[in-house]
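Subject: design request, 219 residues
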């Protein structure tokens, strides 16, 4: 069924792997750097955002280093296969992106700041790849929670596109979609670069900084 299929082409829902009804591996309880729980419920006032910007090992570290971030986790999102495994996602047959959950205190780090990190620290013009990492799981995406996140994400994308165009760089391919279920990745992938400090991180930005004006109003 998948013979010869380009891994940069999303599978049709009916062709995706079937998955399962629950996780077949344990999910760690706490963040190895921050010490906080990585699964909800989170404390009152903590909001959640989801980003996909290539290999999730390096992407997660970008966010846990921000003051005001309560916790982070890596997982699989906005595909078709329920409760997938890493190997299944890497096959390109689930439709999921490698994603990062960011639980944050908006009084300390606004959503706009998270978007600045997102756009600045990877190349959002590459389509279904990020550097040498090729496949639908490495696509650039912002999975939004609520209308305000959608509006601010679209504003940030347009602002950054103007900055890229002024430098003669390409068109942003970042998907902005409502967040679907976030399926946690296996334990060894959580906070991977804390466990393996010299481990692989293939993220590289365009060299153009992204500055997002505060939009104001509740999330």
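Subject: RE: design request

Done. Sequence follows.
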């Amino acid at each position: 069924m998948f013979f010869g299929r380009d891994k940069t082409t999303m599978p049709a829902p009916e062709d995706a792997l079937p998955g399962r009804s629950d996780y077949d591996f344990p999910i760690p309880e706490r963040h190895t750097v921050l010490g906080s729980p990585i699964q909800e419920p989170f404390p009152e006032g903590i909001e959640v955002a989801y980003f996909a910007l290539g290999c999730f090992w390096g992407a997660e570290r970008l966010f846990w280093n921000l003051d005001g971030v309560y916790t982070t986790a890596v997982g699989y999102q906005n595909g078709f296969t329920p409760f997938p495994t890493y190997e299944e996602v890497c096959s390109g047959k689930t439709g999921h992106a490698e994603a990062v959950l960011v639980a944050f205190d908006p009084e300390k780090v606004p959503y706009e700041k998270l978007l600045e990190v997102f756009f600045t620290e990877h190349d959002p013009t590459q389509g279904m790849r990020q550097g040498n990492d090729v496949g639908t799981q490495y696509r650039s995406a912002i999975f939004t929670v609520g209308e305000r996140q959608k509006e601010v994400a679209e504003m940030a994308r347009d602002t950054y596109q103007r900055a890229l165009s002024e430098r003669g760089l390409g068109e942003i391919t970042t998907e902005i979609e409502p967040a679907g279920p976030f399926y946690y990745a296996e334990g060894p992938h959580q906070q991977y670069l804390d466990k393996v400090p010299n481990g692989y991180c293939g993220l590289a930005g365009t060299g153009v900084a992204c500055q997002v004006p505060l939009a104001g109003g509740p999330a």
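The mean pLDDT is 95.
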